[in-house]
Amino acid sequence: MYLRCDDLAYTYSSDAPPVFRGVHLLLNGPGFYALFGLSGVGKSTLARLLGSKHTGTAGVMSGNIQTDMQTILYAHDSERLPGWISIERHLYGVVPSKNHGLLKRLIQEYGLNDVVHQRFSSLSMGQKNRVNIIRYLLQDWDMLITDEVLANVDEPTRYTILSSIKTLFSNRIVLYISHNAIEVVHFSKNIFVLPQTLRGSEGLIQMQGLDQLPDAIPNEQMVQTRLYELLKAAGAGAEAA
Amino acid sequence: MNALLSRLFQFGAIYTCFVGLLWLAKYGMGFSDYLIPSPTEFLHAIREDGPNYVIYSLNTLGVAVYGHIIAILLASLIAVIGSLKSTVGAVTRVAAYNLQAYPIVAVSPIIFIFLGDGLASRLLIASLICYFPLLLSLLGIFSQPVEDVEHFFVQTGSINHRLRLTIRLFENLDKLLTVLTGSATLAMVGTIVAEFLAATAGIGHAIRIALYQDNLARILLALLLIGICSSFYLAVIEILGRTFSRALQKG
Lengths: 241, 251
Known about the structure:
The structure holds two protein chains of two kinds. Chain A contains eight helices and ten strands. By secondary structure, chain A is of the alpha/beta class. Chain B contains ten helices and no strands.
């Protein structure tokens, strides 16, 4: 189970500066990976390319993406459910029947029991995020790219969700994109940082995360050190310029 | 109910201003009763011709409603075909955009020649006049992706043409309701134009006769009844649309 990128570059038009270039990335084996960077460095663009769903009509891509995985899903935070049916009916409709038991459990664990009979539009932003991630988690995927999918969820619930993802889907690849540096440091096995430069991101900086499990919380000193390294890496390009 | 009262009030206000200005001009500039009828003559026309004109107006309204329904069905069918990504879809879209540029009123003599001056011609002209705006709106709605909702189905490979159209239709219900209301006005206009041109029934036909008789009082009465019928029909569409939309939102 792997995904490998070699010298990946992307630009929206041939005369525009690249969003990023020289990106080398290897996701080797199952686990919780993270893609981190400041706003506007091209994380979502890179994620869409990795998800192979970017048609490329709006831009030009060069480089290689190789993988042996069949299904890579890309989820983002502004997704909505169809408004004409209740959340429960939608979820039970789109989740394969073999996962209905787990669906019931996740609805409970993610605190959605009281709202599943409602329409999506009546939920809070955090509840919308939770419903959306559930339906993705319970599909048949090898790799799931989650782009800010928990952006509006409160901290304790986010930790619950991330812990459950790591426990329940430990045999698959999750690429987690978030602006929350502490969370990224805590949960990720490997962190890929897109550094910010004035001429678009160049290369990826790879660093180790703490790969926290629900029953093992890393010590504060270690978190602080990694956090400093991560934020330094994210601004590395700007610093160099 | 509020929608109906509101529509009737709006029309009533405009109509009163219009008639008031006519009478202001009549008495201000000393125009004869032959040119602009007096209030007494107008009331006389209401009393004498009112019942018949109400029947003519309802006849026109009935044809307009049927014409509108035919136009909605036809536009939906063509828009569904036009939203296909295949060659058939592309050809349908191009044909739809080009044909709509042609004025239906100019084609109506051919329709009367082939279909005569009866119901069929009135229905067809009414349908065609409100069909094109409907078609263009539906084609626009069906071809505009709702990325936020469709994304999941695209990612999981469970998207199909029917689901795509359902999502786009649902997300554009308000726009669709506005278009339906606008096209209802056009259906009334189309029917009256057809009746005025060559038909043998309806309020448009009555207006033509009143015109030949130079009887403005009858024309004013016809305008009053057309306005009331249009307001009623538009209000019914609005009420039905809102009820349907609310039912869908709540489940």
